[in-house]
């Protein structure tokens, strides 16, 4: 294949590499491959150590997150319980108020009914035709 000196290899060829990695290669101005430079054994141990520290921090963070979530859930459950109690109290109060109004209306009706009777004789509550209109 006729490739330019600084062009990346095609996806079909391995570009002189023997690995199966499909990650893109980064080339410097001088044609050298840029990336992490690792010595024989020293830096690999650092990488493993960093990874382990990161995993431990991640585990601790996840544990804190679960604890926060649990505390929030407990708080919400307590609020639900309190709101249910308040709802029951308000419903009972509403029923008592409705019953009080009903009794008050019945009392007013009894008063009005007794006011329509004069001297023990009941007034007629029917409408009567008057002679006000000319036919």
UniProtKB/TrEMBL annotation:
Region (Disordered): 1-51
GO cellular component: nucleus
Cellular compartment(s): Nucleus
GO biological process entries: positive regulation of DNA-templated transcription
Start-end of Pro residues biased regions: 1-11
A Pfam family recorded for this sequence: bZIP_1
The BZIP domain, residue ranges: 48-96
Superkingdom to which the source organism belongs: Eukaryota
Gene3D superfamilies assigned: 1.20.5.170
GO terms of molecular function: DNA binding; DNA-binding transcription factor activity
InterPro entries cross-referenced by the UniProt entry: bZIP, BZIP46-like, bZIP_sf
Biased composition, class Basic and acidic residues, residue ranges: 38-50
Coiled coil: 73-104
Entry keywords, A to Z: Coiled coil, DNA-binding, Nucleus
Identification of the protein by name: BZIP domain-containing protein
